[in-house]
Design brief:
The protein is of the alpha+beta class. Helix content is about 45%, strand content about 20%. It is built from three helices and four strands; from the N terminus they run βαββαβα. A four-stranded antiparallel beta sheet has the order 2-3-1-4, with helices on one face. A hairpin with a 2-residue loop joins strand 2 and strand 3. It is globular, with a radius of gyration of 15 Å. It starts with 12 loop residues before the first strand and ends with a helix. The mean pLDDT is about 90.
């Protein structure tokens, strides 16, 4: 069955989520978090996207971003290749790290923008309270 086409944002703003394959951890320690943020910074320079918010959660990532000179697909290809290459080297493993392709939702109005922004910033708090 063919994949459904992604919904394009008219203003280039997206809520994007990356999950670890089989819900596995993609961030084990602070070095992993720092490397992912460094990759984001490198890719931001090349792709010229705006990063509005992010949240790194053990087995997944949430980003709120506006595309720049490159499309979302190219941005996440860059991010994925760079981080996975480093991650596989560090943990002496091979293969995929992320589950399927990234998920993205267009953010077309201010109300949804602020809903996504709150969701991303409160994700660690909700996760922590669910574990207690």
């Amino acid at each position: 069955m063919p994949r459904t086409a992604r919904r394009k944002s008219e203003n280039g703003l997206y809520h994007v989520m990356l999950r670890g394959i089989n819900q596995q951890q993609i961030f084990h320690d602070n070095e992993d978090n720092e490397k992912f943020l460094a990759v984001l910074k490198e890719c931001k320079k090349v792709s010229e996207f705006e990063l509005h918010a992010y949240c790194l959660m053990g087995n997944h990532v949430h980003l709120l971003l506006r595309t720049g000179k490159e499309e979302l697909e190219q941005i996440f290809k860059r991010i994925g290749v760079r981080y996975v290459y480093w991650y596989n080297w560090k943990y002496k493993r091979t293969g995929h790290l992320f589950q399927d392709r990234y998920k993205s939702e267009p953010v077309e109005n201010d109300e949804y923008y602020f809903t996504v922004l709150r969701y991303i910033h409160q994700n660690p708090i909700r996760r922590e309270s669910a574990n207690h």
